[in-house]
Amino acid sequence: SQQGEEDPQALSIQEGENATMNCSYKTSINNLQWYRQNSGRGLVHLILIRSNEREKHSGRLRVTLDTSKKSSSLLITASRAADTASYFCATDGGYSTLTFGKGTMLLVSP
Amino acid sequence: ETGVTQSPTHLIKTRGQQVTLRCSSQSGHNTVSWYQQALGQGPQFIFQYYREEENGRGNFPPRFSGLQFPNYSSELNVNALELDDSALYLCASSPRQGMNTEAFFGQGTRLTVV
Questions:
Q1: How far is residue A65's CA from residue B52's CA, in Å, rounded to a whole number?
Q2: In what order do the strands lie in the sheet with A55-58?
Q3: Which of A66, B22, B43, B95 has the CA that lies 20 to 30 A from A92?
Q4: B52 versus B63: which is more confidently predicted?
């Protein structure tokens, strides 16, 4: 079963714009992770935020976590065409078993 | 590129057949998890192996089984293939079983059942 639900399902922006994706989940978590997937290939880990953290940055990525609302957001600033991919949030309830959402498809046009 | 390798990359099987997919985990990782990703969906957890023992299983029938070897590589076996088993199968390794560690994914095996 899917735990997280990403919103929107698809997002189309121009290069240089910011992209924001949201994720909601249902049960308690130890951490929440964001992954990128290009063209149905393997998943690339982007960032991990622990349940006791509220915000985390990595390069052009900013992730927030609100455990009271069971939600997270991923912000990609100054998007590039190379950021075109599907983005998934995944919750980890412990022991590194991940529960994924259905993902957001991001298209960044030059 | 992670150090996780999967083979084969693509596979076509007939309904009712059996298939074995293989995964070599990243060096030093003792935990391997398998996921099934249907087209347009997020990955679904199948099961996890830790130090050669199954340690956690998702909502998949017993015809999905696995092994982990002493070198921590792993196999996923699926018996009596059904059309709905067509999917991308992803293997992920982690440095240790526990909290707050990222997973390193292979490129996947795309299985088509006809």
A1: 34
A2: A5-7, A19-24, A71-76, A61-66, A55-58
A3: B22
A4: B63
Distance of CA A23 to the CA centre of its chain: 7
Cβ neighbours of B33 in A, within 8 Å: 96-98
User: Whose CA is closest to B91, among B38, B21, B42, B30?
Assistant: B21
Residue with tokens 């998934």: A88
CA dist., res. A95 & res. B49, Å (int): 11
For each of chain A's 110 residues, which pLDDT tens digit applies? 455 688 899 999 999 999 999 999 998 888 999 999 998 788 999 999 999 999 999 999 999 999 999 999 999 999 999 999 999 999 987 777 899 999 999 999 99
Select the residue from B9, B59, B90, B105 to test the A interface by mutation, using most A Cβ atoms within 10 A. B105
Contact of B105 with B90, CB cutoff 8 Å: yes
CB atoms within 10 A of CB A71: 18
DSSP state of B97: S
Q: What are the tokens at A76? A: 């990609």
Q: What is the DSSP letter of A54?
A: S
Tokens at B91, concatenated: 């293997």
- Closest to B56 (Cβ–Cβ): which among A42, A48, A97? A97
